[in-house]
Write a structure and sequence with these properties.
With 119 residues, this protein is mainly α. The chain has a domain at 2-84: Methane Monooxygenase Hydroxylase, Chain G, domain 1. 79% of the residues lie in helices and 0% in strands. It has three helices and no strands. The protein has helices spanning 2-25, 28-52, 59-103. The radius of gyration is 27 Å and the shape is elongated. The N and C termini lie far apart (97 Å).
Amino acid sequence: MIAEKELRLQQYFELSVKVLKVLHQGDEEQVLDLLEQRDVCIAAINELDAKAGNLLMNETMIEQLNRIAELETEIQSQLQLAMKKLSSRVRSEQRNQYIKNQYEDLTAVSKGVFYDRKK
């Protein structure tokens, strides 16, 4: 069970490295899939611990968890930057849409000649 947990932690670490690379490349669409794969790894690790009845841990796992913790802080900062970029893009699009709606003629005007009967 310990070997399997070490393998799962290694997979989690590799997925975290991929997430970080994808965030540096600016491809936010792939990030969600990678995060879901990481959630699957976490669920498998939790299931292994539940089967054992306690928290399985050794020195190798502690080292892996320390490396993962460092990656997690960097991933969080990159996700915040990506979120700020996306937020500014959304605000820019909303502003452009508002400006477009301000100057667009929304009233329908009939084509043709208008005769004023009151005169």
